[in-house]
Amino acid sequence: MVSQQLKDHIKKARRVAVLTGAGVSAESGVPTFRGEHGLWKKFRPEELANFDAFMRNPELVWEWYQYRRSLIYDIEPNPGHFALAKMENAFDEFSLITQNIDGLHQKAGSQRVIELHGNIRRNKCATCGEFHEDEIPITQKKVIKCHCGGLIRPDVVWFGEMLPVDAIRNAFEWAESCDIFFSVGTSAIVHPAAQLPITAKQAGIYVVEVNPDKTPITAYVDEHLQGPSGEILPEIIKFLE
Ligand code: BJW
Ligand code: ZN
Predict the structure, then answer these.
(1) What is the spatial distance between Cα 105 and Cα 102, in angstroms, rounded to a whole number?
(2) Å from CA of 122 to ligand 1 middle
(3) At the topology level of CATH, where does 4-30+76-117+162-240 sit?
(4) Is the CB of 101 under 6 A from ligand 1?
(5) From 9, 25, 145, 227, which residue has the greatest number of CB atoms within 10 Å?
(6) Distance (Å, rounded) from C-alpha 197 to C-alpha 83?
(7) Which of 30, 32, 37, 218 to mutate to test the pocket of ligand 1 (most atoms within 8 A of CB)?
(8) 49 lines ligand 1 (CB under 6 A)
(9) Residue 117 is a catalytic residue
(10) Spacing of C-alpha 94 from chain mean position
C-alpha cells in the first residue's frame, strides 16, 4: 500500500508537515462538510458558516453549532489521529496544520497543532471579540449576549473571514520548507488552506494525498494514497517505528 518511493522519502525526511480536513474525523463519527451527511436541516454548510447568516438568523446558526457540539462532545480520536500524534515524535521537526475545529488531534496527543479555522469548543463575542470559554453549556438553546450587548458566537472562521494571521503565516512557512507535505482527508476546495499543498509542490516538496476520493489537487500531487486515513496513516507509521 505504501510505495517504496514514499518509504525512501520518509527515511530521509527531517521536517514534515501535514494538513488535515474533516475526513480525518469521519471515522470518529463526525460528519464531513461536503459528503452525503453534510446537510443539516437541508442547509449546506456554506449557507450557515458565514457572518451574514449569523446576523440574519443567529438562533438558527447557534442551534447548528450546538447540535455539532453535541455530536463531538464525547467522541474519541480514531487510528488516523493517533498515527499523526505518533508522527510528531518520529521526525526532527513536525507540524500538524488542521482545518478541523473538533479538537480531536489534541485529544489524540498531538501537541503542536496549528488550527486554521478556530475551535468549536470556544466562543467569542461578535462585537467586542472577548473570549467566552467553558461557561456556556451545550444545552444552551438560545444565543446569549456578552456584557457589551454583542451576540456570542463560536470561535471558528466563517466564509469571508480572515484566518488567524499567525496560524496561516506559520502554515505557509511549513508548506514552503518541509521535506514531505501530506494532505489528508480534505476536499482541498476551501482557500487559503487548499493552496498549501499546491504551494508545497511549487516549492519542490514531495506531496502526498490521503483520501478515498480524488480532489482538485490529486493530479498535482506526487502520490495519492486512496483510502480512509484511519487505515492508511497507521500503515505509514509502521515505517517509523
Ligand atoms: C476521508 C474519509 C476518511 C471522507 N479518510 N478522507 C480563492 C479562490 C476561491 C475562493 C476563495 C479564495 N480565497 C478565499 C476564497 C473564499 C472562501 C473559499 O475558499 N471558498 C471556496 C468554497 C471556493 N474562503 C474564505 O472565505 C476563507 N477566508 C478568506 O479567504 O479570508 C480572506 C478573504 C476575506 C474576504 C474576502 C476575500 C478573502 C475562510 C474559509 C473558512 C472555512 N470555514 C469552514 C467552517 C468552519 C467552521 C465550522 O466548522 O462550522 O471550515 S467551511 C468548511 O470547509 C470548514 C472546513 O474546515 C473547510 C474545509 O472542508 P474539508 O475539511 O476539506 O471537508 P470536506 O467535507 O470538504 O471534505 C472532506 C474530505 O474527506 C473529502 O475529500 C472526502 O473524500 C474525505 N474523506 N472520509 C480520509 N475516512
Ligand atoms: Zn462583547
Answers:
(1) 8
(2) 19
(3) Rossmann fold (3.40.50)
(4) yes
(5) 25
(6) 20
(7) 32
(8) yes
(9) yes
(10) 16
User: Is there a contact between 182 and 18 (Cβ–Cβ < 8 Å)?
Assistant: yes
Residues of the chain with CATH 3.40.50.1220: 4-30+76-117+162-240
| pLDDT one digit per residue (tens) for the chain, 241 residues | 789 999 999 999 999 999 999 999 999 999 999 877 777 778 888 899 999 999 999 999 999 999 999 999 889 999 999 999 999 999 999 999 999 999 999 999 999 999 999 999 999 999 999 998 777 888 899 999 999 999 999 999 999 999 999 999 999 999 999 999 999 999 999 999 999 999 999 999 999 999 999 999 999 999 999 999 999 999 999 988 7
| Binding site membership of 86 for ligand 1 (Cβ less than 6 Å) | no
Query: Ligand 1: does its nearest atom lie under 6 Å from the Cβ of 191?
Result: yes
Answer whether 0.90 is exceeded by the pTM.
yes
Q: Which residues contact 129 (CB under 8 A, 6 or more apart)?
A: none
Q: 27: closest CA among 75, 96, 73?
A: 75
* Arch. (CATH architecture) of 38-74+125-156: 2-Layer Sandwich (3.30)
Which amino acid, one-letter code, is at 129? G
pLDDT, tens digit, 9 for 90 and up, residues 146-185: 999 999 999 999 999 999 999 999 999 999 999 999 999 9
Active-site residue among 117, 132, 147, 191? 117
